[in-house]
Design brief:
The complex is a heterodimer. In chain A, helix 2 runs antiparallel to helix 5 (218-268). In chain A, strand 1 and strand 2 (149-151) form a beta hairpin. By secondary structure, chain A is an alpha+beta fold. Chain A has helices spanning 2-38, 40-102, 115-124, 161-172, 218-268, 283-339, 346-376, 389-406, 426-443, 475-478, 500-510, 549-561; strands at 136-140, 149-151, 179-185, 194-203, 209-216, 385-388, 411-414, 421-424, 449-455, 459-466, 514-520, 524-532. Chain A has twelve helices and twelve strands. By secondary structure, chain B is mostly beta strands. Helices cover 12% and strands 38% of the residues of chain B. In chain B, strands 2, 3, 4, 5, 6, 7, 8 and 9 form an eight-stranded mixed beta sheet that branches. Chain B starts with a helix and ends with a strand. The chains are: A alpha+beta, B mainly beta. At the A-B interface, helix 3, strand 1, strand 2 and helix 5 of A face helix 1, strand 1, helix 2 and helix 4 of B.
């Protein structure tokens, strides 16, 4: 079904995109985390930034709030006092008005001006020489005709409805508490709303006069916004300044530390004559001095140890050499005795045989010791040649046939069809394989030994699998130690020297290859030799798995039911770079 | 230096800076320093209060509804939405607010309610005294003394469906009380030019035209004034004055800044041939006279751009003196047929030439603008003129038998009224042209006993008999010159007599009235009839002369000159004796 397919395709594409994004984000985050974790200076500067931002924000908010309060409060107070003074005058005028109305209207011509008009003129300065007040006044009486006045361009529509309702509710309860309200009001003829403080109160409660004062507070608002801006700018500058200060200060501290780190790294990489420059007498100078002393002592100790180790190796080598000459003589004598053993009585004959066998073992041990001391002295070198690894394996197996027959062990060979060419030292690899096969026969308890050869573009591998008692956890690396024995009580049946695997590993390392072991109690063990196809090329992986495929498969089945912690041994080059 | 010490030094420096900085945050002391001058608030508008109309309340009675209607009329100019709420559908259709505004005094009262049960109507009558009316062009016309001020306006109310009273019938136009007018209107002087720039001579004087302007809450008073200025003069000066603002011009905005006021105009200004001096003088005087933008320069812009291509048009804060005042205030007087000049030491010096010679032949002297000619009426009736020079002699300028006393115009022409033939005569002694008739249709058939040309050369005052004074204007130019736009200014009631008239400044006429109780000098604003009665003196006065703020009069008995002191509001004598009449140049 093509539609389904395309849909699946599209879905996959989307998922892929998302996955890509997530991967990239994770990579960036990982990079950032690494940079963060590695730079003390960055950490200090960042913490300073964060802390100072918090401090500046808190301080700025507090300061701005304080200024806000004091400015607005002062304005409100002055506005309230202006408004209350005006209300007193208005109340006075209204009382006069009532008095005038109470009197019989005289028919005369000189009617006094309406007190309401007079008081409004007085309040807004209309009568005088035009010193205009900064606020507008609205006297509103909806119950009586002709008793409402306004100054400027305020209209009853400009009164905030909530304020008016509050006043009227209060009036119903005979309360005349002034109320205020601040909001933007767009007055008639003005394009922009103006932030206005409106103070409203009832005057002459019984007559229902509402008096509203409109104080424009756009100046205050402007001032406050300027202050806010200043605080923000100053705060921002302060944060930057603090970050710069932190950067400078930490640089003073961190750069000597960084120098010390670099020196330590160089020291660790073997440059033992690396020293720090000592400047001044401060803590960092003292650190440098201590570091230099430490480096000097370390160099001395290492030198001494090297000398000691050299002496030891020389001793072993010398002993081995010195032992060979008497051994040759002893061997010649023993050969004579052995050849003439049939003439001896059975006791002496048996002794000659035993001596012959132990002498052979002694000889091979001495050879191994000499070989290993050659490694220690760094005198081992490769004699590489391009050969087919399958031939080498077959040769090694042919060498082991006799031993296998004795242990009634059969070999199972799994060789690829094409040649597996690699640049190797024929002799050494054969020795490694022989060692591994002997080992497998010895510990295979008569069961089959499986030899697998694998190859890919870069590497060839040979795995030798036995089905013996196997290895306990942690023994996978111990097996390569010199003179290590899995079970000290067990006798050596094929007369191994205890150095075979150690030498094999040295051989593998000399090739730039890996020799690794896997084993599980009761499941047998497997040794895998991986060699690069071209000498001197680094290995990236092995064509064969270290864990035998059947074990892996069993694990997977089990893993579907219960999650299983894998043993510490895994595929790849985790522990083989040493 | 160790790290610790370095850190310590840094901390010390930072804390020193912080302490010094916070010290500067409080008010700094020291000085003196120059201070930027702060503007004295908004200079383009005036404080004012308004009536706020409230919608009619259901519980109101008929009288209260009429009171509310009256308040809504007062507020109609600001908020025309409330008044219709008082009216029924029909009244809304019929009633129009246009036309002249009737002004009644504050002591109006509402007559008793008359209920017409049959028609279900209620009639409330507003009874009051009419004070004036404000015409649509803003002219304030006070009620004449002869008119009956009593006024009654019947308002018919009906009850609407909800039972509340609504006005069903009311007289057309707005009816305001004096208080309403004082609240919402401001007497405003608009200034025009005494001629047009394309006319005979370049205008050199401003003529005040007084109107009542309604203050608009949504725009600045300065803008209201300039917009009204652009519309042109009122009927009293129609055709007689020049207006440099073209018809169709408008004010975009008037903004006040620290040191100047920016007037942004728009309209068909022909910036090339406009008489900029006149335009700026009109603008400056019209604003300054109303205490707007005082002390600040004006910048005139056209559509937000500089007025002319040569640069911004800046009008200085003070108007050149010559546009309004700067009159020759040297005191002359006629004594025994000779004209004397009053010296600063009080000595009267006779003028050089024949005018300084005592005699019985000439009276009714008039001195021309630059004191170079003196005119007088001969006993035979004609008008004679002499130059002010030792070798000059009297020459007849306007022949006639029953001419009024001559009056000089500022352009050098001499004016009189021929009472015998009932016409206005004019001559030009400087160019010795023959006297010519000037049309004055409004004066036809009137007994003109005095004709005085104002110093601005535009207005003209005539006394008709001894009962009435009318003021008109000299309109047109060249052959079309005529005296027109006459309207009554004041009249004498009963047995009172108007003895003399004299021009003060361009806008005020002084009238000497003989009443039974004594003599009264009235200073009348010729535009709106606003009258100031000067305190009387016990000595009977015969003739007046004035220039600007100075007012002189002669006493009948002592033949001395009295000067009116405006500060003390008293008449004080001047050291001159045997005076027939005080004189000033022109007027």
């Amino acid at each position: 079904m093509p539609p389904t397919k395309t849909r699946r395709l599209r879905r996959r594409t989307l998922r892929q995109i998302l996955g890509g994004v997530r991967r990239r984000a994770r990579r960036v985050a990982g990079g950032a985390r690494r940079v963060w974790r590695r730079s003390l200076q960055l950490q200090v500067v960042t913490s300073t930034l964060v802390i100072s931002v918090i401090v500046v924000v808190v301080l700025g908010a507090f300061l701005s709030d304080q200024i806000n309060n004091s400015v607005i409060e002062r304005r409100q107070q002055s506005a309230a006092s202006d408004a209350s003074a005006d209300r007193l005058r208005i109340a006075d005028a209204l009382n006069r008005q009532q008095d005038a109305q109470a009197k019989p209207a005289d028919a005369g011509k000189n009617v006094p001006a309406d007190p309401l008009d007079e008081v409004m003129d007085a309040i807004i300065g209309a009568g005088g020489d035009g010193s205009k007040t900064r606020y507008e006044v609205l006297i509103l009486n909806t119950a009586k005709p002709g008793q409402s006045r306004a100054s400027g361009n305020v209209t009853p529509r400009d009164v905030p409805p909530a304020l008016q309702q509050m006043l009227r509710r209060q009036a119903e309860k005979f309360v005349d508490r002034p109320q205020r309200s601040t909001q933007p009001i767009r007055f008639a003829g003005e394009g922009q709303p103006t932030q206005t403080l409106v103070i409203g109160a009832m005057v002459n409660l019984s007559d229902g006069y509402e008096v509203y004062h409109f104080f424009p507070i756009s100046d205050e608002e402007q001032m406050l916004s300027n202050v806010r801006l200043a605080i923000v700018v100053v705060g921002f500058g302060l944060v930057l300044l603090l970050a710069a200060i932190a950067y400078l200060v930490t640089r003073q501290v961190v750069s000597p530390v960084r120098l010390a780190r670099q020196a330590a790294e160089r020291l660790a990489s073997g440059k033992l004559d690396e020293r720090l420059k000592v400047r001044g007498e401060d803590d960092l100078a003292r650190l440098a001095t201590s570091f230099n002393e430490m480096a000097a002592n370390l160099a001395l100790k290492i030198h001494q140890l090297e000398e000691l180790s050299q002496v030891q190796r020389q001793f072993v080598s010398d002993v081995s050499h010195e032992l060979r000459t008497p051994l040759t003589t002893v061997r010649m004598a023993a050969d004579l005795l052995y050849d003439a053993r049939e003439d001896f009585d059975p006791m002496a004959s048996r002794s000659a045989e035993l001596m012959q066998a132990q002498l052979e073992r002694f000889e091979s041990m001495l050879a191994d010791l000499l070989e290993i001391s050659r490694y220690d002295a760094g005198a081992a070198d490769l004699d590489v040649d391009s050969v087919d690894v399958r031939d080498v394996v077959l040769r090694a197996i042919a060498d082991s046939e006799a031993l296998a027959e004795r242990h009634s062990t059969r070999f199972e060979l799994r060789l690829p069809n094409e040649p597996c060419m690699a640049e190797i030292d024929n002799r050494r690899v054969e020795r490694i394989l022989r060692n591994l096969l002997f080992n497998a026969i010895e510990h295979g308890e008569g069961r089959d030994v499986v030899v697998t050869v694998g190859a890919d573009r870069d590497a060839v591998a040979v795995a030798v699998r036995d089905h013996g008692i196997g290895l306990k956890a942690g023994e996978e690396t111990l097996v390569f130690d010199r003179f290590w024995r899995a079970d000290p009580s067990r006798a050596r049946t094929i007369g191994g020297t205890g150095l075979g695997l150690a030498i094999s590993r040295e051989d593998a390392t000399l090739h730039g290859g890996w020799l690794q072991a896997w084993g599980q109690p009761g499941e047998g063990s497997q040794f895998r030799l991986t060699l690069p196809r071209r000498a001197g090329v680094d290995l990236k992986g092995s064509p064969l798995s270290l864990v035998p495929p059947e074990i892996e498969m069993r694990r997977t089945w089990r893993g579907q039911m219960t999650p299983v912690l894998l043993p510490a041994v895994g595929d790849g080059g985790g522990h083989d770079l040493d | 230096m160790t790290l610790t010490r370095r850190l310590a030094a840094m901390i010390a420096v930072v804390s020193a800076a912080v302490i010094a900085g916070s010290g500067c945050a409080v008010i700094p002391v020291g000085g003196p320093f120059p201070v930027d001058e702060a503007g004295s608030g908004d200079s383009v508008t005036v404080p004012f209060q308004r009536m706020v109309a409230v919608p009619p309340q259901p519980q109101w009675g008929a009288q209260q509804v009429v009171e509310g209607l009256q308040a809504a009329m007062a507020a109609y100019g600001d908020d025309p939405s409330i008044l219709p709420l008082y009216l029924t559908e029909e009244a809304r259709r019929v009633w129009k607010p246009d036309g002249a505004v009737t002004v009644i005094d504050d002591s109006f009262r509402l007559d008793d309610i008359v209920e017409n049960k049959e028609k279900k109507e209620t009639i409330v009558t507003i009874l009051g005294n009419k004070m004036a009316q404000i015409n649509e062009d803003g002219t304030y016309v006070p009620i004449g003394p002869s008119e009956d001020p009593k006024i009654s306006r019947a308002i018919t109310l009906v009850k609407d469906r909800s039972g509340a009273y609504r006005v069903n019938l009311l007289p057309q136009g707005l009816l305001l009380t004096d208080a309403d007018v004082r609240r919402a209107y401001r007497p405003t002087n608009l200034y025009y030019l005494n001629g047009t720039s394309g006319g005979d001579g370049e205008p050199d004087r401003l003529v005040a035209d007084r109107v009542r302007l309604r203050i608009k809450p949504t725009e600045s008073y300065a803008q209201t004034i300039v917009e009204r200025l652009i519309q042109g003069p009122t009927s009293g000066l129609q055709g007689a004055v020049g207006n440099e603002f073209p018809a169709g011009a408008r004010v975009r905005s008037i903004r006040s800044s620290e040191d100047r006021v920016v007037v942004n105009l728009t309209g068909p200004f022909a910036t090339g041939d406009i008489f900029v001096g006149g335009l700026t003088a009109q603008l400056r005087a019209s604003l300054s006279d109303n205490r707007l933008a005082s002390g600040r320069a004006l910048e005139v812009q056209l559509d937000g751009e500089p007025f002319s291509s040569s640069g911004p048009l800046i009008v200085p804060a003070s108007l050149p003196e010559s546009w309004l005042g700067g009159e020759d205030n040297q005191v002359f007087y006629a004594s025994k047929g000779a004209v004397h000049m009053l010296g600063s030491d009080g000595e009267g010096l006779p003028l050089a030439g024949p005018a300084g010679q005592p005699g019985e032949l000439y009276s009714g002297f008039a001195i021309s603008k630059d004191r170079d000619r003196i005119a007088a009426r001969a006993t035979s009736g004609g008008i004679w003129v002499t130059r002010h020079a030792a070798d000059a002699r009297w020459q007849e300028s306007i022949p006639g038998t029953k001419l009024t006393d001559p009056s000089w115009h500022r352009d050098g022409s001499l004016w009189t009224f021929d009472r015998q033939n009932g016409g206005v005569l004019r001559s030009h002694p400087a160019v010795s042209r023959a006297a010519e008739h000037v049309a004055a249709p409004a004066l036809q058939g009137l007994d003109v006993t005095s004709l005085r040309m104002a110093r601005d050369g535009v207005r003209v005052a005539v006394r008709i008999g001894t009962k009435e004074v009318q003021v008109g204007a000299l309109a047109g130019g060249g052959a079309g010159t005529m005296l027109s736009n006459f309207h009554p200014l004041t009249s004498a009631e009963g047995d009172d007599e108007i003895r003399d008239i004299a021009w003060g400044d361009g806008g005020h006429l002084l009238v000497l009235v003989q009443t039974k109780a004594g003599q009264v000098v009235k200073e009348i604003n010729v535009s709106d009839g606003e009258t100031t009665q000067l305190p009387s003196t016990s000595k009977p006065l015969v003739s007046l002369a004035a220039v600007g703020e100075v007012i002189l009069a002669t006493t009948e008995d002592g033949k001395e000159i009295l000067e009116f002191g405006r500060d003390k509001q008293t008449w004080t004598p001047k050291p001159a004796t045997a005076v027939d009449a005080p004189l000033f140049a022109l007027g």
